[in-house]
Amino acid sequence: MTEHIEHRLEGGITYITINDPKNGNRVSDPMAEELSLQIDAASETSKAVVLRTMGDDFCLGRSIMGEKPGKLPEAYVMRENFDVIFNFYASFRRSKVPVIGGVQGKAVGFGCALAALCDITISTDTSQYQLPETSHGIMPTMAMSSLIDRVGRKAITYMTYAADFISAQHALSVGIISQIIPEDEFESTIDHVIDRVKNIPIPAIHAVKEFTNYAIGQPMPIAEQYARNLHATINSSEAMRK
Predict the structure, then answer these.
(1) Are residues 216 and 146 in the same domain?
(2) Is the per-residue pLDDT at 110 higher than 90?
(3) Which InterPro entries match (predicted)?
(4) Higher pLDDT residue, 132 or 241?
(5) CATH no. for residue 66?
(6) Strand, helix or coil at 141?
(7) Res. 18: pLDDT tops 70
(8) Residue-wise over 103-133: b if at least 16 C-beta within 10 A, else e?
(9) Would you call 103 helix, strand, or coil by DSSP?
(10) What pLDDT does 68 receive?
């Protein structure tokens, strides 16, 4: 386990915490690789993953953000070097259980991607979100790919071209987060969501995640048939009748 990642399984829930507030909870490639493995493992042991960070800011980006690159490798080598980040993004989508995120302070670049990738994202009312890559001379499609199935086109293009901070209310309106909560109710709201998920049978938890992953964006007749099949399959399972 890397130094700044804390992990525990408690009451059927996997809790993952990035604890490096002095560095803005910035995430290195080894940390991203470990986080991917932990999210993958949670699908087999847990009803949900809770992703949190410590300190005033949620995450200020990747640990290399702002560094001046040396001699760049050839394009195909460079492409493979970033696989660890794309695989990390994919771990949220392939997880069979929901990832619940709690965001405080600033969520910048990779941090904004983290917030968007969570299936449920609870935000304080003072949190801010930003994709600053273009202002650092970085092609932003890596971060954009994290939003592509969460956020509409106009919001993505505004955030990447303008590279400005947006408010929690703005982030809610475009689909980056799920709910805005005053700071004094933040922890209790996250606990409430966790308690609700704990009471849902595993087949339903998996089916909801599957449906949101694959049905949204499909033509309506296909999505409807998918819904009918899952509804009949899951509701007839023994686990749903306990």
Answers:
(1) no
(2) yes
(3) ClpP/crotonase-like_dom_sf, Enoyl-CoA_hydra/iso, Enoyl-CoA_Hydratase/Isomerase
(4) 132
(5) 3.90.226.10
(6) helix
(7) yes
(8) bbbbbbbbbbbbbbbbbbbbbbeebbbbbbb
(9) strand
(10) 52
- Is the domain of 141 the same as that of 209? no
Measure the CA–CA gap between 134 and 69, rounded to whole angstroms.
15
Same domain, 36 and 112: yes
**Residue 69 scores a pLDDT above 80:** no
Question: Is 136 in the same domain as 225?
Answer: no
The three-state secondary structure class of 58 is coil
The pLDDT of 146-152, averaged and rounded, is 92
> What is the C-alpha to C-alpha distance for residues 11 and 211, in angstroms, rounded to an integer?
25
* Residues 181, 214 within the same domain: no
What is the token pair recorded at 20? 């490096």
Amino acid identity for residue 18 in this structure: I
Q: Are residues 44 and 164 in the same domain?
A: yes
Residues 185 and 221 in one domain: no
Cβ contact 24:56 at 8 Å: no
Q: How far apart are CA 113 and CA 202, in angstroms?
A: 27
Q: How many domains does the chain have?
A: 2
CA angle 38, 140, 134 (to 5 degrees): 130
Contacts with 207 (C-beta within 8 Å, 6 or more apart), sequence order = 230, 233, 234
Residues of the domain holding 171 = 5-196
Has residue 28 got a pLDDT over 70?
A: yes
